[in-house]
Each structure stands twice: as structure tokens, then as C-alpha cells.
């Protein structure tokens, strides 16, 4: 008998996020932390893409002509801003429920996004390629991180880039991102993150390297309670983002 095909999908994680799908666009709901987090993510993506592709970040549609994939897109919190900046956006999520919510919202606000209920491996095996891949808050929820990063890396065009945002596997992250955020402050539903699935930067760098990508920028992201906002930092002990490039042949 042939070996079963490897999958990046963690069914429990898909079920958990599907159950919350109606909350995606409620800034005061279960995804409030992501809404708070979004400005720092968007600014980082805008500035880095503009720098790498020679675009003016202050232009109305600086990403015109660039093809983006938001893998694990959820309700489309990143897809819609990227489309408004001119990108051709594919939003992919393993949860069909999330995709339906994303499609409805995009239709309501008049933004064009190609939403698909699919997986990284299916997209890669179909030969899809992109200038930019957004891999944000996803790697800590997949079943096979090496396979997931490999399939995402396969889809990055030579000279293209991939953003990865995730949570470090440190005691500080356990205290702040899991115990603090989920059990004390209740910013997130309990069980959103599992400590053993969090990813250290060196583990991510190894997986990216095996996928043919090299990290060209990295930053921590920290929350300032007095200002009630997130901002970039040198501290990568909890939340962090990296930018990786596939070198042109």
C-alpha cells in the first residue's frame, strides 16, 4: 500500500478557528488582539515590500502588479488591506467557514480577493507562485511545520519574499502569550496556543533554509499596555516577525 500523503493540517486547530469564524471582523470580539496587532503588521509588510520591489509606500496602490498569497488568511484581515494597496491577492485557509466569512465581508466592502478553502500543499502542487507570501500567525498551528514551510517556500518566485509571524517557545512567551493572554486577561480563548507548538527563531530559520529561503530581516513585536498598542522591538522573546527571500537563480 502507498504511504498516506503527509498533511500540514491540524484538524483540531481548523475546528477551533472555524467555531470562531463569525468573530473575525468584530474589533471588540474574540479576535480583538489581532485587530490591535494589525497596524504594526501592515506597516512592516508595506515598508518591506516597497523596499524590496522598488515601490513608493506612500503611493495609493504601491503593490500594483504583485501577486500575494495570505496563507491561513482567516477572515481576511490582511487580504483586504493588501488588495486595497493594489496587489492581486489569493487568500487561502483550510477552514471553509473562515473562507465564507472572508468572501462575505469582501463583497460587503467591495474589495476583490480570490478566496480559496485549500491548503499550502494543494496550492504548491498545483504550481501556484507568488511574489509575496504572508505567513502570519500560522506556523504554530500546523501539523507539520517542515512540510508547511517547504510547500510555502516552493511557491515563492525567485527574488520573491515571505513574511512569517509567530510566537517564540520561551518561558516568557508561556507566561505572557498563553497564561497571561488566554487565562488571566482572556484576550484569546483558552487553548488558542499550545506551548509545545510554538516555534523558536532558529527552528524557523532552519526550515526556511531547507525550503530555499534566507532570512533577510527580523523584528520582535511587543505590547505597551499604557499606550494600548503593539510596536516593533529588538525583543523577540515572545512575538516576532521575520522576512525571508528566495534568491534569484
UniProtKB/TrEMBL annotation:
Top EC class of this enzyme: transferase
One BP term from GO: methylation
Pathway: Cofactor biosynthesis; ubiquinone biosynthesis
Pfam families xref list: Methyltransf_23
Protein origin, superkingdom: Bacteria
SUPFAM superfamilies listed in its UniProt record: S-adenosyl-L-methionine-dependent methyltransferases (SSF53335)
This protein's UniProt keywords: Methyltransferase, S-adenosyl-L-methionine, Transferase, Ubiquinone biosynthesis
UniProt catalytic activity: a 3-(all-trans-polyprenyl)benzene-1,2-diol + S-adenosyl-L-methionine = a 2-methoxy-6-(all-trans-polyprenyl)phenol + S-adenosyl-L-homocysteine + H(+); a 3-demethylubiquinol + S-adenosyl-L-methionine = a ubiquinol + S-adenosyl-L-homocysteine + H(+)
GO molecular function, one term: 3-demethylubiquinol 3-O-methyltransferase activity
EC number(s) given by UniProt: 2.1.1.222, 2.1.1.64
UniProt binding sites for S-adenosyl-L-methionine: 41, 72, 93, 136
Family that this chain belongs to: Belongs to the methyltransferase superfamily. UbiG/COQ3 family.
PANTHER family, per the entry: METHYLTRANSFERASE, UBIQUINONE BIOSYNTHESIS O-METHYLTRANSFERASE, MITOCHONDRIAL
HAMAP family: UbiG
Role: O-methyltransferase that catalyzes the 2 O-methylation steps in the ubiquinone biosynthetic pathway.
Name of the protein described by the UniProt record: Ubiquinone biosynthesis O-methyltransferase
Organism of this sequence: Mesorhizobium waimense
Name of the gene: ubiG
Amino acid at each position: 500500500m502507498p504511504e498516506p500523503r503527509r498533511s500540514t493540517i491540524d484538524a483540531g486547530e481548523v475546528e477551533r478557528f472555524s467555531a470562531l469564524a463569525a468573530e473575525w471582523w468584530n474589533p471588540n470580539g474574540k479576535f480583538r488582539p489581532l485587530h490591535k496587532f494589525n497596524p504594526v503588521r501592515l506597516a512592516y509588510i508595506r515598508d518591506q515590500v516597497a523596499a524590496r520591489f522598488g515601490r513608493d509606500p506612500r503611493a495609493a496602490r504601491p503593490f500594483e502588479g504583485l501577486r500575494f498569497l495570505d496563507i491561513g488568511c482567516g477572515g481576511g484581515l490582511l487580504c483586504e488591506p493588501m488588495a486595497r494597496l493594489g496587489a492581486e491577492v489569493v487568500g487561502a485557509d483550510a477552514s471553509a467557514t473562515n473562507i465564507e466569512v472572508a468572501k462575505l465581508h469582501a463583497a460587503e466592502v467591495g474589495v476583490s480577493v480570490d478566496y480559496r478553502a485549500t491548503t499550502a500543499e494543494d496550492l504548491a502542487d498545483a504550481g501556484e507562485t507568488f511574489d509575496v507570501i504572508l505567513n502570519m500567525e500560522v506556523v504554530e498551528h500546523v501539523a507539520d511545520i517542515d512540510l508547511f514551510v517547504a510547500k510555502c517556500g516552493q511557491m515563492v518566485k525567485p527574488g520573491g519574499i515571505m513574511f512569517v509571524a509567530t510566537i517564540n517557545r520561551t518561558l516568557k512567551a508561556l507566561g505572557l502569550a498563553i497564561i497571561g493572554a488566554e487565562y488571566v486577561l482572556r484576550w484569546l480563548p483558552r487553548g488558542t496556543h499550545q506551548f509545545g507548538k510554538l516555534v523558536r527563531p532558529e527552528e524557523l530559520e532552519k526550515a526556511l533554509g531547507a525550503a530555499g529561503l534566507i532570512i533577510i530581516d527580523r523584528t520582535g513585536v511587543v505590547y505597551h499596555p499604557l499606550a494600548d498598542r503593539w510596536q516593533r522591538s529588538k525583543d523577540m522573546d515572545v512575538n516576532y516577525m521575520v522576512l525571508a527571500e528566495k534568491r534569484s537563480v
